[in-house]
Amino acid sequence: QSPYPGIPRMAASSDNAGNASSEGPSLRTVVCGLSLPSCVFNSSNPFATALEDLQALDASAAGAVATRTACPGFVHDEATMKWASPDGANTINCLGYSPLPFEYYTGCLPQLSGAKPCWLSISGSAEEVGAMVREAAALAPSLPGGLAVEINLSCPNIAGKPPLAYDFDALRDYLGTVFDAGPPPPTLAVGVKTTPYFYDAQYTGAAAVLNGCPHLSFVTAINTVGNGLYVDVATEAPLLAPSCYGGLGGAAVHAIALGNVRRLRALLRPSIAVIGCGGVDSGEAAFRHLLCGASAVMVASALLHEGVGVFARVEAELRGIMASKGYSAVADFQGKLREPAAPQQRAAAPCAGLSPP
């Protein structure tokens, strides 16, 4: 059981929880100047809450360690903030942010091995986030693996606060305030985690704002798909009652995530890396994200079901796919999704019973 109310514990780790084999194709990648020994690591999620979670991720084959989102003033409510895995493959949750503060995570990161980069996830008002970015900048030089800060603009589970990533005018003002004191130092990469986008105006609107902020180094796409509802047939009630609705993750959102990665990669300036997140439960799923343009991929729901051993398994499967296709490095296929062949034009046949004019 978790020492923190309402926070799940990961599945017990399997024997392959440690570092993956370095034999075969290389999974190394560079994201916004940070060198990752593997392109597969965890997303900001409930299974990266406590120091023990982060230490387990650090000791695993994951290429980096991401923390759960810290947000000043957020209070966990055990009665309403829940999670579930109704089918053993997908997850739904209405948990919100971490019950632990930003200062907890800045204290945790120096206790890790330093062998891989850290992703520090944060949220809050623009002024609060700006202050946290500056604190992270002071911490970054002491972390041998490097540090990235991910600003979570996209949690769908905060009552009365719709995701900022859907309000482009407000997002532009928000980022301006965050960086009002100036750009982050070269030792700190700063990026954002976006909502799932669904139509052209959302993609172009988001890209215009993100491209207009010169201090952003990466975009993580996507967060969970909000307002999901699972119904328990036995009780005839919502599985997450009394909250009812929650963010959906896992294989069910994989295609949506791929579409977001592909579209954002095409619209964002090259200096903004795209990190794929959504349904990464196998080497094939990771391969698809990378093929669509992701520089790295993040795992969440599969981490719940399998524990930290999931990273070694996914990496082994990804290496197998790469080897079968003759790829020796991620760069050999990253962003090289093949365009479908144009359909051949055929002369239209006259409709039966109609005479030409």
Structural class: alpha/beta
User: Average pLDDT value?
Assistant: 90
Strand content: 15-25%
What is the CA-atom radius of gyration, in angstroms? 21 Å
Strand order of the largest sheet: 3-16-15-10-9-8-7-4
Distance between the termini: 78 Å
Which shape, going by the Cα principal axes?
Answer: globular
**Helix amount, in percent?**
25-40%
Describe the biggest sheet? 8 strands, parallel
State the helix count.
Answer: 9
Which parts are unreliable, with pLDDT below 50 for 5 consecutive residues or more?
Answer: 1-6
Give the strand tally: 16
Can you describe what's shown?
The protein has 357 residues and is of the alpha/beta class. 28% of the residues lie in helices and 17% in strands. It is built from nine helices and 16 strands. It has helices spanning 51-59, 102-108, 126-139, 168-178, 200-211, 254-267, 283-291, 301-306, 309-325; strands at 29-31, 34-36, 40-42, 65-66, 83-84, 90-93, 118-122, 147-152, 188-193, 218-221, 225-228, 231-232, 237-238, 246-250, 273-277, 296-299. The chain has an eight-stranded parallel beta sheet with strand order 3-16-15-10-9-8-7-4. A four-stranded antiparallel beta sheet has the order 5-6-14-11, with no helix packed on it. Strands 1-2 form a two-stranded antiparallel ribbon. The longest helix is centred in the last third of the chain and has 17 residues, at 309-325. The model is unreliable at 1-6 (pLDDT under 50).
Q: Concise description?
A:
The chain is α/β, with parallel strands linked by helices. The chain has helices at 51-59, 102-108, 126-139, 168-178, 200-211, 254-267, 283-291, 301-306, 309-325, and strands at residues 29-31, 34-36, 40-42, 65-66, 83-84, 90-93, 118-122, 147-152, 188-193, 218-221, 225-228, 231-232, 237-238, 246-250, 273-277, 296-299. Strand 9, helix 5 and strand 10 (218-221) form a beta-alpha-beta unit.
